[in-house]
Amino acid sequence: MHKGVIMLVKAESKDEAISEVRSFVEDYEGQVWDWWVIGGRWNKVLHPLHSKFSKTVEKAFKKYKKIGQSMSNDDTTKEYQLIWELIGGTGNNPYSDDAPYNTSEDDNVYLATDCKATIKEWTIDMEAKAESFYKAMYRERKKETAAKREGKKVWPSSAYYAKLYSDCKYDNFSFESGVYDISNSTNNVPKDLTGYYAVMIDMHN
User: Residue 73 class from Cβ within 10 Å (0-12 exposed, 13-18 middle, 19+ buried)?
Assistant: First the structure.
């Protein structure tokens, strides 16, 4: 399963931000990820034009749907690219088939102040998420206890939810993270993003 995470880091340059992120993420091999890359399936999501592109595409295809016009896959692909270029984008659009495979660091590392809207969209309320996992853990534990009383073999899925609860409750970097500030070791986004870089990563577990 793939998961996109925006890593925030205080740095003086793109190169320093990338170096800091690589150093941080490498420590979590086998704990959070078994494969990761900068960009990947979330290539260009941090691009300043990404939000405008997504909204323009949505409006365009709502219009097509309203008039009952269907489009072939080839036509859709061409429409995406046309929209991307019309709003000032260069290279392949974020929805292109090769987007996950032809990623570059330039497309996925930006000053955090230049992509605040995207960072806000990706921010997760870890306390609320922890609460949902706690409820799931409690629910599964009840099922397991009832099954054991009946002499049935049980796979303890409550332990799985307990781990997720712990990660969220204790503000850990985990597969549940949406935005993670590695400079302050927290899933909470700083109010002032000045001096921060945002780095999009695609990780698999």
Answer: exposed
Q: Measure the CA angle with vertex 35, ends 31 and 170; round to 5°.
A: 30
Q: Among 163, 169, 166, 170, which Cα is nearest to 205's?
A: 163
H or E element at residue 199: strand 196-204
Q: Taking each helix axis as running N to C, give the angle between helix 50-66 and helix 73-86, from 0 to 180 degrees, rounded to the nearest 10.
A: 130
Span 103-109, average pLDDT: 82
Which pLDDT tens digit goes with each residue over 64-98?
665 555 556 677 888 888 999 999 988 888 887 66
Asked if the model's pLDDT at residue 111 lies above 70, the reply is yes
| Spatial distance between the Cα atoms of 33 and 5, rounded to a whole number of angstroms | 12
Mention every residue, 6+ apart, whose C-beta is less than 8 A from residue 174. 32, 164, 167, 168
User: What distance in Å separates the CA atoms of residue 12 and residue 146, rounded to the nearest whole number?
Assistant: 57
Mean pLDDT across 40-60 = 87
Task: Supply the pTM of this predicted model.
Answer: 0.84
Confirm if 8 and 119 have CB atoms less than 8 A apart: yes
Distance of alpha carbon 93 from alpha carbon 82, whole angstroms: 9
